[in-house]
Amino acid sequence: MEHVNHPAHYQRKDGIECIDIIRHYVCDIANALKYLMRAGKKQEIGMEDAEKEIEDLKKALWYIEDYQRSARQHIAEAKPELLDSYIHGITGHTVAEITTGYTDKISLAIFMLLQMGLIVNGAVYNVYGWPEMIDNCQKCIQQRIADLEH
After folding, report:
1. Cα–Cα distance between 81 and 147 in angstroms, integer?
2. Which positions ≥6 away from 109 have C-beta within 8 Å?
């Protein structure tokens, strides 16, 4: 049952499991994080590893764009330093621990996503300037896709 309960492509060697992070985020951000955190780790029969990674990255982009389209006006904004303490308090991991071990572009994209759509005591938080952060996140993912395609 390990392939169901704790699949390797959702776990890191340091023990951080994707579900421990994404359960604290709104659906679109959680799904984008999930696809970024597993990109390059999940294999699929009939697909080259780079093809599968590109597919996961494109799925992450789709969820980011959906979040952008459906972003609610009732989202509280938090200073980045407060959000980091929220993330650590809820997940038990620092942002640095969560973003370690990925390519530079994906690590940066995960860092940016961790700062939006976080649910704390029933409220959803984004850092100040989150629309620009979404644009930068998308650029990082698109650059990684371009790297894989060449």
Report:
1. 32
2. 36, 60, 137, 140, 141, 144
Q: And the tokens for 6?
A: 């704790």
pTM of the model: 0.86
First-last CA distance in the chain: 37
Each residue's pLDDT tens digit, 106-135: 999 999 999 888 888 888 888 878 888 899
Whats the size of the chain, residue-wise? 150
| 141 burial level (CB within 10 Å; 0-12, 13-18, 19+) | buried
* Segment (H or E) for 4: helix 2-5
Per-residue pLDDT tens digits for 11-46: 666 668 888 889 999 999 999 999 999 998 877 889
Which run of H or E residues covers position 70? Answer: helix 49-70
Contacts of 45 (CB under 8 A, 6+ apart): none
**Burial annotation 69-91 (CB, 10 A radius, 16+ → b, else e):** eebeeebeebeeeebbebbeebb
